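1st attempt posting a full record on here, be nice pls
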Amino acid sequence: MSPLSLDCKETFRRLDDYLDRELTPEEQAAVARHLEICAGCAGEFAVEGRLLDALKAKLRRIAAPAGLLDRIAARIAAER
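the predicted structure (as tokens):
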């Protein structure tokens, strides 16, 4: 069986899942191979990666309302 080969459209469609490591191992490898040979997709991947990192950094600075974590823990415990 030959390895999965992706064009730019298919690679671009999978970039978010690739960044989140939500692809199958075969898809992960196919996206990585494509990014190694395609400067356009590699550039888009870099932009999306920076955007995702910036978004995560901003979200870490937002404080959860007082008691929220306790309410979530209690809800989870009640569901069990």
